Amino acid sequence: MNGWTVSDIPGQSGRIAVVTGANSGIGYVTARELARQGARVVLGCRDVTRGKAAEELMREQVPGADVRLAVLDLADLASVRAFAAELPEERLDLLVNNAGVMALPQRRTVDGFEMQFATNHLGHFALTGLLLPRLRAAGPGARVVTVSSGLHFLGTVDPRDLQMDHRYRRWIAYGRSKSANLLFTHELSRRLTAEGSAVVAAAAHPGYAATNLQTAGLRMEERAVAERAVELLNRTVAQSAEDGALPSLYAATAPGVRQDDFIGPRVLLWRGSPTRSVRARWTLDDRASAGLWAASERLTGVTYAWNGD
């Protein structure tokens, strides 16, 4: 994987991709580079205005890009179901579960779930289940890539307190939601393998990449000084969104990506070319992943259908 860049992305002509959170940051770069290589890309975005602006910019940067905007709010399960139901394509080669929120003050979604757990995990769990038949229909080469974080090491999910009702700590909640991403990928990989599916489930993380993700929570609380400090760190320490998207693009397109691979930056989980990343042992726990899966089906009302069931 030494030195892997966007120039190494295989041709994507004829492939169909959905990228969530594609209006900014690594989601935007991921969608743009897939389109540049010939994929038809659906931009799943919550904010229509920002989504349209991203679509227009993408067409300017990649003339002839086959992209279109579709409304998707992962914090609203009705929106997730509507997005899946209205997607006209009968097959899907690639689903990149990229959208996320980070270290927000305690908030509840319209469905009553803790915002970080709901947006980062439950919404993507439901979306993947609803789109899985179309991924199966694509045949060999179909992939689900879920974007986690090196900060998943902050903690794993607590099955007794999935919503952190007992004591909410924003960074722990973020870390748990990112561990949930990896537990989801682990269990999805196990189940796909058991049914003999050609669909591959992998995960990625961007390292420390400069996006608006780090400042959104601070802006919600009007913590201007802290927001400026984070913006300074982003400018001086973080790698760019362009580089932060490389692990996602590698996991989505590179040959040889295996079930349950976790791809991240080479240097200290921070920056550099993509490689297989270290991960917390708890994200490979079969019992924990199965328990989270069962809870996720119950909470979302989305039950996956498996061949042979």
TrEMBL record:
Pfam families the record matches: adh_short (PF00106)
GO molecular-function term, one example from the UniProt record: oxidoreductase activity
Cross-referenced InterPro entries: NAD(P)-bd_dom_sf (IPR036291), SDR_fam (IPR002347)
Keywords: Oxidoreductase
Entry-linked PANTHER family: PHOSPHATIDYLINOSITOL-GLYCAN BIOSYNTHESIS CLASS F PROTEIN, PHOSPHATIDYLINOSITOL-GLYCAN BIOSYNTHESIS CLASS F PROTEIN-RELATED
Protein name: Short-chain dehydrogenase
